[in-house]
Amino acid sequence: MKDHSLEIYNTLTRSKQTFTPLEPGHVGMYVCGPTVYGDAHIGHARPAITFDVLFRYLRWLGYKVRYVRNITDVGHLEHDADEGEDKVAKKARLEQLEPMEIVQHYLNRYHRDMAALNVLPPSIEPHASGHIIEQIEYIKKILEAGYAYESCGSVYFDVAKYNADNHYGKLSGRNIDDLLNTTRELDGQHEKRNPLDFALWKKASPEHIMHWPSPWSEGFPGWHLECSTMGRKYLGDTFDIHGGGMDLMFPHHECEIAQSVAAQGHDAVRYWMHNNMITIDGKKMGKSYGNFITLEQFFNGDHPKLAQAYSPMVIRFFILQAQYRSTVDFSNDALQAAEKALQKLQDAYARLQKLTPAEKSNVELPDYMKLCQQALDDDLNTPMVIAHLFDAAKHINAATDGNTKLSEADIKALKDVFDTMAGEILGLRLGAADTGADLTPYEGAVDLLMEIRTNAKQNKDWTTSDLIRDKLAALGFNVKDTKSGVEWSLK
Length: 491
Fold this sequence. Notes:
Isoleucyl-tRNA Synthetase, Domain 1; 3 domains; elongated
């Protein structure tokens, strides 16, 4: 293991805690994935990128990480967790497709978007619909423990009884009496002993197209149940980290805690981590609010709130500029600033590859690798890592302009920190266009044009020089003259 003292903010204790894995050298991590009934929006990108960085960093530290990210393809209902039409089934009915066609279609698109954002695939990506048997067995354990009851073919978790023995609300800091006084009556509440009780199994209505046999009825599992079941199956009775968006803290993750304690007699998760929201005009961005912008729309600029298209790496950089527990508010100005900042890092990285080392350095570089690791150890402080990279870029630019000299060891250290911290851990593509495009087919042709342009400038043929620059700009290339020569990159 690399020397470190990783501190993460445990939502359950509301404090930073030094991370110590349950099993030396191994980490079990579970993150709530998408409900696949529509295109992913930027709100989906934040947890994916946040826990991708954690996944990358833990592996870099030397841990063997089993990262489970589930796919919700059944049981997530329209009105609330217990009532309404299944979101996947509704989409299937409207489009006259099989539910699993809807799931596969949007899952393919989700994977495409995640790949564009350079989000690594998880170790395991289980589907809720593929674990019905395990969920039925989990319900049986909760019933045997006395914390659930059957009603009209459905099974509900008895929150009041559980709270009498435990603490329902400890993750979100809520009080059950306050919850009882503020919970609204919903259709189907007559089946429940208490409006706070949540469904473990729902009896399917005749028109419900996704259902399975069970000891209680032909029906389907509750939304909260799937994560408890799949987390236990793939990570064991107790595992290290459970993550997701802050909007899942209540009721979803609160219910998960109650389920695991009821079924197993103890908490299943040691560290809870939640990323904050992305907002638009100060309001959470999401499908339920009708103000969301899909990732595809960001990538192609096809949305009235977008002034232009933004590439995947700009979106990733925009999200990483904020610490994961802080709110990020969308604006075109903020995204355009992120685009310019990312381009500066890309330019510095390109210059770094061309630097000729001096025999001796005339500046003393900070230990950027150590500084970046200290920032990541401080609850994944990605903005501070980015700040250190920009400071390193100043030294690269100064050496490129001939104002300072860097030794071979200095250049190697700078390459290591950019390759490791920017590339391997933050997941930023700096060596090519930020879409991840391969520049190899262009390099020979553009380099030849740069040579012709350089000769034209030496012969004071400004017309040819400017023509090459302008034509390349029109084709999407940046051309920049520096003291040490000309640089180019894709926009």
